[in-house]
Amino acid sequence: xxxTDRLVAAAERGDSSAVRAxxxxxxxxxxxxxxxxxxxMPASGYGxxxxxxxxxxxxxxxxxxxxxxxxxxMSASGYGxxxxxxxxxxxxxxxxxxxxxxxxxxMxxxxxxxxxxxxxxxxxxxxLKAKHKGGKTARTVVCLDANLRPDPNLxxxxxxxxxxxxxxxxxxxxxxxxxWSHKAGSGDVAALEALAREYHSRGIAYDNEGxxxxxxxxxxxxxxxxxxxxxxYNDRGMVYAAQGNFASAIADYTAAIxxxxxxxxxxxxxxxxxxxxxxxxxxxxDYDSAIRIDPQWAQAYCNRGIAHDLVGNPELAMADxxxxxxxxxxxxxxxxxxxxxxxxxxxxxxxxxxWKKTVELDPNGDNGRKAxxxxxxxxx
Length: 380
Prior knowledge:
The chain has 380 residues and is an all-alpha fold. 64% of the residues lie in helices and 0% in strands. The protein contains 21 helices and no strands. It starts with a helix and ends with a helix.
């Protein structure tokens, strides 16, 4: 895996430590992978603000385009990441840049139903009358669920001569998209992508709210629109895993791997599903794969260390935890798990030191609370 592939992968998952490390050893912030992706694009699409700032400070081009003309600003706008949008605009991102089919950041924000982003783009000079090749403008791609009323702020921002303050069914949009997709030479790919992104973003929002059933429902809808979307399988798998439905999680991670075998995330996540299912021996090969793809990913080493410890290989576990902490010196989980491994080897003093460091780094988080418990229970 090239340095560019590793940088894009680290940016996609929001791993700021890995991004800094890769840039520090000479990775090019503007280098592209297949399709023309730069690291800034997935970082913007996933809303990883810190990573976006790191990349821009390293000279990333806010106006870099994919092969089809897609930009980082379009990604951030489509998913409603307002702060990322503001940072990109401040860095000189072209608010009216167009994809090859005419799609703009304003259309992406409108299709996603993000009024704050729409307002910001309009204030920056976004062209409300711009059209993509299907003839649609930002006013006519508003994507709202049939059971919801249109956001009045978005309507007010976009309404001019064309009235749109009516309910706009996603199902109806899908029918329209399918119609245009079957018209020779006029497939409305942009609207289809907008539909899938809308479903996916709703799935993420419901997951963040703790509504796993609706999250799964919307990830599933996204996959019906785009059955080759590896990230949607991965994200649905994570919700299944959080429910304890490890069989379904493993199936989704496997599907993601089949679609994109060069992504480290689903390998790592499938390994964790196997481990939490009580099969750490099956987890280790997946962690191996994740590390081969992205050898700078501290989390994968930490997870493999846990699995090695569970199968009775404390030396291998210790080696992995040490690598994880070299790559991410502030990783409280790696300190906590290394403390557990030390304890298993009856190195109680080292265990105590690692758990104290865990509390220092994460005093109010899960790792810190577990470390405090272990310190009290150990009577040190």
